[in-house]
Amino acid sequence: MSHDPPHIPLPEFPPYLKRERPASRAERTRQALLEAAFLEIYLKGFRAASLSDILEVSGCTKGALYHHFTDKHALGLAALGDAFHRFLDHNWYQPLAGTDDPVTELRRIIERHVNGELGVDPRLGCPINNLSQEMSPIDEEFRLFLSGVLAEWRGHIADALERGKAAGTVRADVDAEGVAAYIVATHQGVSGMLKTTRDISLAEKCAHSYFDYLEHLRA
Fold first, then answer.
1. pTM of the predicted protein model
2. pLDDT band at 121 (very low <50, low <70, confident <90, very high)
3. Which CATH number fits domain 15-215: 1.10.357.10, 3.40.50.970, 3.40.1440.10, 3.40.50.2300?
């Protein structure tokens, strides 16, 4: 019996994460490198990511790569920072910023995750969680970068909960920062479990329990 993992193709860059086509050739080259690097790292992890494959997918030359980035480390951090911010801004920050009823909006966000509407392959897990496990123990710059991503994510959720408290839709005694940390930790844990089990029914079961928890936050 073979124990080789099943082949997973290079993921596609979700259309909603793509920027408008830059006017200058230099910026188009940089954008192509960022997108190709993110997909390569998402599929293989940072250490196994291949610069040769990134160049092939992006259609860029090695000279162009080193014109924009000093090394693989700089390229990786730039690519991940760009993709993470756009993903979280589109799927979490903007929806939460536009509501005084964060409990309902948090339910909608997770429903979109569970329904596969975000263009994320559950077999690959959450790239933030993947890189936290891979790089935080061995690379301080990566650890600080990822810690900042998680802090920003928690902050947007906490801000939304505070607005809900002010609007009377969230209980006044709710610890917004504590709940935000719990929500992010739950998301990261579930994504890791799905990556390993590949059992989407677990996401649905977790979502039901998560929704029960959220309802207890209502005023």
1. 0.92
2. confident
3. 1.10.357.10
Q: Token pair for residue 45?
A: 């992890």
Q: What is the pLDDT of residue 7?
A: 65
What is the Rg, in whole angstroms, of the alpha carbon atoms belonging to the chain?
19
**Nearest Cα residue to 82 out of 38, 24, 16:** 38
Q: Are 54 and 40 in contact (CB under 8 A)?
A: yes
| Backbone dihedral angles phi then psi of residue 170, each to the nearest 5 degrees | -120, 140
**CA-closest candidate to residue 22, choices 14, 13, 31:** 31
Only one residue has tokens 């080259």, namely 29
- How far is the C-alpha of 183 from the C-alpha of 157, rounded, in Å? 8
